[in-house]
Design the sequence.
């Protein structure tokens, strides 16, 4: 059982390491709810807050539920705080389609004009990022940025094949065309972006009517926005010159940051693997507590993730099957069940995300295979150690005393007594006489529950 315990210890060190990694992904967000931008010029600094401000959010991330919450909170704060303009600095590879749809709805319902600003230089708005850019009241790009490649792909980054491709393609095309038409932008190009995965540079995007203009920074963006017409709640208005207003950066809330981390399918993969292993160990050896606690916590988080990101039924079935096979292995110790369970779980994780709702969102093979290999190796040794422990016949009664040392209470030769483990036993020596008060080792058990002992001095 000592070997088994050592592997349990290794398991917990692994959990701690994973926890530290996830914690590092969560920390580092701004502690202040608002941060005044340093780029405010002297005139802007002297402007009273009652005259308004320009709100800015930095959306350099995938489009996930935490991103949606970030945008909705920013819109709410901008509306309630008297912001004249909300600038969304966007740099994204895409994300979940359902989440994107909800973000578009929030943008259309906003009472504050929204400017999507694709930045910084080298940044891009691809896939879902194209949809968000088209939904903006004003669309702007920084020099050296790009937009496009909105063609939906499968979880492994490859093209979707067959009827599923047509279904996903038609759904995404209909969405982006509807949004683009309402904002009066180039419908033909956005359809090509979805069907043919075309992209444009900042200058090309302006020339083809995909975005409104190019700006080097937020100040230039604000200045160029003056005089442009926007539609807010079906009312057309003209933007004023807000270049003298202060700029307020709204950082992402810690809860939204956590939500985005949990929405990452790679994190979901880690949680499922920890949950299966921890719960399986606890079921086999009740009372260890820690594997069960960590396993249940991981399972709850994994189930929460399943409500956040769209999952495929096939992937879930494979995950459940894998968990059942691994659990069964702890009771039958055949090796085949564990192998089948690990393979089933890894396949389930690879096909976990529903690509019809989250094109491009992927559980990385570089995460699944190493974790599956490490946990598979770990389970192999734990299961084997547990199997060997179960095959050993338990020693009870007098036989359990063999090898232990006791104190001779009555001089022993053919007959005597020895005190061991709090009990007094009849004893006989292996050879010679052992005086009372000496220590002796139990070397065997005689008929009639008499212990055979040997003086320590004879060893």
Sequence:
């Amino acid at each position: 059982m000592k070997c088994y315990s050592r592997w349990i210890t290794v398991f917990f060190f692994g959990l701690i390491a994973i926890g530290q990694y996830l914690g590092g992904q969560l920390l580092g967000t701004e502690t202040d709810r608002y941060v005044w931008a340093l780029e405010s010029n002297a005139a802007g600094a002297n402007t009273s807050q009652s005259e308004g401000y320009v709100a800015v959010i930095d959306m350099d991330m995938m489009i996930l539920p935490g991103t949606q919450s970030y945008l909705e909170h920013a819109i709410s704060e901008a509306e309630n705080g008297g912001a004249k303009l909300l600038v969304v600095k966007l740099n994204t590879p895409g994300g979940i389609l359902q989440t994107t749809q909800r973000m578009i709805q929030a943008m259309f319902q906003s009472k504050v004009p929204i400017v999507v600003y694709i930045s910084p230089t080298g940044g891009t708005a691809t896939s879902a990022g194209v949809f968000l850019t088209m939904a903006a009241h004003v669309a702007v790009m920084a020099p050296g940025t790009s937009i496009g490649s909105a063609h939906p792909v499968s979880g492994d980054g490859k093209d979707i094949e067959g009827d599923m491709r047509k279904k996903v393609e038609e759904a995404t095309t209909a969405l982006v065309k509807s949004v683009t038409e309402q904002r009066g932008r180039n419908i033909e190009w956005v359809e090509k972006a979805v069907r043919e995965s075309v992209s444009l540079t900042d200058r090309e995007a302006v020339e083809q009517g995909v975005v409104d203009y190019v700006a080097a920074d937020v100040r230039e963006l604000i200045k160029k926005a003056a005089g442009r017409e926007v539609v807010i709640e079906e009312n057309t208005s003209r933007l004023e010159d807000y270049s003298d207003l202060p700029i307020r950066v709204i950082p992402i809330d810690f809860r939204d940051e956590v939500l985005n981390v949990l929405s990452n399918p790679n994190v979901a993969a880690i949680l499922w693997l920890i949950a299966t292993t921890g719960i399986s160990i606890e079921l086999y050896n009740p009372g260890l507590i820690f594997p069960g606690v960590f396993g249940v916590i991981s399972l709850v988080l994994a189930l929460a993730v399943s409500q956040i990101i769209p999952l495929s039924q096939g992937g879930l079935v494979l995950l459940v099957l894998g968990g059942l096979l691994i659990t069964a292995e702890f009771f039958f110790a055949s090796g085949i069940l564990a192998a089948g369970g690990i393979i089933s779980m890894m396949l389930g994780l690879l096909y976990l995300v529903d690509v019809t709702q989250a094109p491009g969102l992927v559980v990385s093979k570089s995460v699944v295979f190493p974790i599956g290999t490490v946990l598979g190796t770990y389970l192999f040794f734990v299961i084997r150690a547990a199997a060997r422990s179960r095959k050993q016949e338990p020693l009870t009664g007098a036989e359990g005393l063999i090898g232990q040392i006791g104190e001779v209470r009555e001089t022993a030769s053919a007959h005597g007594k020895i005190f061991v483990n709090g009990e007094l036993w009849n004893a006989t020596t292996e050879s010679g006489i052992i005086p009372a008060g000496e220590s002796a080792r139990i070397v065997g058990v005689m008929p009639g529950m008499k212990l055979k002992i040997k003086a320590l001095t004879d060893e």
